[in-house]
Amino acid sequence: MSGFVIEMRNISKIYPNGTIANNNVNFSLKKGEIHALLGENGAGKSTLMHILYGMIRPTKGEIFIKDKLVEINSPLDSLKHEIGMVHQHFMLIPSMNLAENLILGDERSKNGLINKKEIIKNANEFGKKYNFNIDFSQLVRDVSVGVCQKIEILKALYRGAKILILDEPTAVLTPQETKELFVELKKLKKDGHSIVFISHKLNEVKELCDRLTIMNSSKSVGVYNVSDLSVKKISEKMIGREVELDFEVPEKKLGKSILKVRNLIYFNKLGKKKLDNISFDVREGQILGIAAVEGNGASHLLETLAGLRKDYSGEIFISGVNVNKLSIKEIRKQGLRYVPADRMKDGVIKDETIYNNLIVDRLEEGEFIKHWLIDFKEIKSFARSKVKEFFIKCKDENSEIGSLSGGNIQKVVIAREFDNNPKLLIINQPTRGIDIGAAELIRKKMVDLKQSDSGILLHSADLQELMQVCDSIIILYKGEIVGYVEEPKKVKPEDLGYYMLGVKKDTDVSGVINE
Amino acid sequence: MNKKLKVEIIRTLIALSIAFTILVVIVSLISDNPLEALYNLFLGPISSKRNFGNVIEKTIPLIFTGLAVSLIFSSNNFNLASEGAFYFGGVMALVLCFTINVPSIIFWIILIIVSATVGAIIVGLPGYLKNKTEASEIVSSIMLNSIMFLLGTYILVYYFKPANSRAVSSADFPDKYLMPNIIAGTRVHFGLFLAIFAVLLIYLLMFKTKLGYKIRMTGKNSNFAKVMGINVSLVLLLTQLIGGALAGIGGAVHTLGVFDNFTSNRSPGYGWDGIIVAVLARNNPLYVPLAAFFVAYLKTGAAIMTRRSDVPAEIILVIQAIIILLIISKNLISKIEFKILISGKLDDGGAS
Ligand SMILES: Nc1ncnc2c1ncn2[C@@H]1O[C@H](COP(=O)(O)OP(=O)(O)O)[C@@H](O)[C@H]1O
């Protein structure tokens, strides 16, 4: 007996396009443990877990469950082995109530009929059994993401899962919701459940988990007891060198407003109000943070400011120029740069070289052009200097973006957008899912830009990050600014959480306007 | 050599060998004398100077349409109106031949400008419609091709067919307007130089200019292009206009390079064949001449085979279709490619 409920041995997975997502990975899970799976985006964590869950077949390797060699060909198979998975993207039906979603696909009903009252009652009881305090009669679309997360976990339990795979469950939660979730997970662990916890937040891993496996570029770097490693040590193992997690953000005198937003209102296609009368300023030398739970308008706001949509009312001024009617190209000419949340979709061209991903703006300004033709020699030497400056790990500047790790891809985006003294940066989730080394570099570069008088508007789901680098923070809830924290150093993450959950609301947030 | 290129070459070779195997099987089944049929198909084109001249003569229009389609495809747009533009380039040659009287050299310059403009308009139309109404450019361009063909026939019959002629064709073009022949004993004409010039020009455009950069970036990720402030719809429109101009010029040059007069069925589908050329060349202008030569060779071989044996030339259409399918179905012949891509990349599994 090995004592493992799950053992994955020498797992390799190569996707049809040639991407090696897992390269001889070993992974094991003990009964009654919470096991963290760490590694930056693209390291191969999801692939490994999807193999365990039966969603994809490994190219090579064996899976043992309770010491028996098994084949898992579908999620149904994995369920037979009491494995359940909760994905990052919820698979719930918004127009149904929580109880119906709980039993969806598993209606143990008599003669095909479903009694609404009865299933709600049963669901409430089921929730209590696991210490989840939820009112199951609510509709999915009316509850917060935190509750959706819990329903997903309960769904897996309802189907008999004893082994839970949680893919970044806390990525979109407030500190309060995270705390609640952890209490519930620890209870599950005590009851004999085993949990795989995929996360990027090392503090949480330290608090919750027993062991951890680190993945890097499709390989497993090692398995450790969490108690043997400090957060600092974990991050060093992840990136293979020392990191400096804390750095001082120097005080800076704020200059004049570089971005003025006034009475911004936006309705989405379904007629739902996504941005509700938003007004604020970003000033030279300022990093203004936006804290918000996903779905509360932060991304809408940032996309609108980047010029991606025009069907809003209200006014946006960049360096005093009204940009409502300007094209994205013209807005960028005003000095705007934008780091989109989804870097693979909007931030880079995956099957292009690093140098071609770096030069759009400079080409537009007429640089690198000699006798009408593009001077690739000069471009490549420019790209080489950026690769060096941002420590982009790659073969050379001719490497394809797709061959880089998540952190290095993001560095390419940052290298392009932070180039050439931008006046205003709109930055959405710059460090989501990337290794700590890259995240640290990006934060430092943001502070550098601030020092050279750029204004920065930063949205991040990582509250620690916001509190570390921002001069002040606004909080969005249901599309509205509900709070303004002038000095983040003086508050705790929980304080932001109350605003983000809509529990707390300032009546006067005019402090964020600089007239 | 870089692995991607290697994979593409192997994919092409595999596609070709599968297609030719199927060809051999079909010919063996339907022909009384399959060896002779295959001999004519594969070796016919090099059996005489005249036959080889036919190959080159067909290569010229295929270079033009292949370039047009490559350019349009690289912006990830599937406008297929190059066929209509090519045909109408020919119609423009017809119209100008009988309406203006100028020295040859001036005529050719005017012809190129006019056929380019008309081609650009024809290919630009589906693009414009898509921009304004979101009509699928595939559907509208295919329908437009039929319209252009019938319109061309109308122009021929009502304005340029001699009243006493029974064939649906124009009078002979004035000699001074014909493209000069460059190889005696064949119909290889001056258009070859124009085609090669076009290849270089489009290569420079695609890989050395700002517009080309924007075209390629838009084609590979239009979201990215948009976010970066590239005017995506303008880039797409320009691409289609340039592609149309190329196809139009190709049609005009071909008509005056090869024929003595204009008959209504003068487009043997060079616009469509431009698609297979582009697919074989992977949209790279520098590979277009090679791909065009290959397709021209097959077409010539097929024509010779029909003349000298009992196998119909249409079989080559089947083969072309199979080749396209095999090349664009990325996963169909992926096992071997897969092995190349991953060769040496996995650690070996002994380390447990
Ligand atoms: N379906 C797929 N086809 C091809 N490549 C994929 C697919 N899914 C993931 N990948 C690639 O495999 C690698 C590992 O991805 P993933 O397992 O999602 O990592 P993680 O979960 O650690 O972010 C990445 O390079 C990703 O781009």
Describe this structure in words.
The complex is a heterodimer of chains A (515) and B (352). Chain A is α/β, with parallel strands linked by helices. Chain A has a domain at 4-239: Rossmann fold, CATH 3.40.50.300. Chain A is 32% helix and 25% strand. Chain A is built from 18 helices and 22 strands. A 6-stranded mixed sheet of chain A has the order 6-7-8-3-9-10, with helices on both faces. Chain A has a 6-stranded mixed sheet with strand order 16-19-20-13-21-22, with helices on both faces. In chain A, α15 packs parallel to α16. The longest helix of chain A is centred in the middle third of the chain and has 16 residues, at 175-190. Chain B is mostly helical. Chain B has 2 domains: 1-31 and 311-342, no CATH class; 48-309, Orthogonal Bundle (ABC transporter involved in vitamin B12 uptake, BtuC), CATH 1.10.3470. Chain B has 14 helices and no strands. In chain B, α3 packs parallel to α7 and α3 (49-74) packs across α11 (270-280). Chain B is globular. The mean pLDDT of chain B is 90. At the A-B interface, β1, β2, α10, α11 and α13 of A face α8, α9 and α14 of B. Adenosine-5'-diphosphate (ADP) is lined by residues 15, 17, 19, 21, 39, 41-47 of chain A. Residues 15, 17, 19, 21, 39, 41-47 of chain A line the site of adenosine-5'-diphosphate.
